[in-house]
Amino acid sequence: MRYNKLILLLLIYLNNSFFIHESFPQIRRISENSKQKGGKIYIIDIDGTICDTKKSNYNESTPKLNNIKKFNKLYDMGNEIHYWTARGALSGKNWDKYTIEQLNKWGVKYTSINMGKPHYDVWVDDKAINIIDFL
User: Fold this and answer.
1) Domain range spanning residue 64?
2) How confident is the model at residue 77 (pLDDT cuts 50, 70, 90)?
3) Does residue 110 form part of some domain?
4) pLDDT tens, 57-70?
5) Any idea what the CATH number is for the domain that residue 70 is in?
6) How many CA atoms, within 13 angstroms, populate the side-chain half-sphere of residue 129?
7) At 30, phi and psi to the nearest 5?
8) Which residue, 72, 65, 63, 73, is CA-closest to 101?
9) CA 101 to chain centre
10) Which of 1, 17, 51, 77 has a Cα at 20 to 30 A from 43?
């Protein structure tokens, strides 16, 4: 019982300090695609996944059109597609408006775009798939 309380306190601490931040900006499309029966929810990074970006130079990002096409197809099939980015996490610069314009220009279909993803070196998750393995 004592361990359960310690775990609960740890989760509350993590929730309030780093991992789950309730106020990260999220942009949803008005004609939001909701998950259909049997559909899945996909969380997809932007830089390195649907575009090439070197050294956080987002103004010069180039779209990976084949990847965008595959994720758009998943969207069209009734899956939710949520993009999540850490743009500006280190610099503090707000890239929200530019990112939305960029994705719209590239024809990216999405359920939501989530800003405020933490910067990290390694993300460990039991459901994570590297873009190379996914394609």
Assistant:
1) 23-134
2) very high
3) yes
4) 999 999 999 999 99
5) 3.40.50.1000
6) 8
7) -65, -45
8) 63
9) 16
10) 17
Residue 78 falls inside a structural domain: yes
Distance CA 72, CA 90 (A): 29
- Convert the chain into a string of H (helix), E (strand) and C (coil): CHHHHHHHHHHHHHHHHCCCCCCCCEEECCCCCCCCCCCCEEEEECECCCEECCCCCHHHCEECHHHHHHHHHHHHCCCEEEEEECCCCCCCCCCHHHHHHHHHHCCCCCCEEEECCCCCCCCCCCCCCCHHHHC
Q: Tell me the three state secondary structure of residue 2.
A: helix
Answer whether residue 7 is part of any domain. no
Average pLDDT in the chain: 79
Place of tokens 């059109």: 65
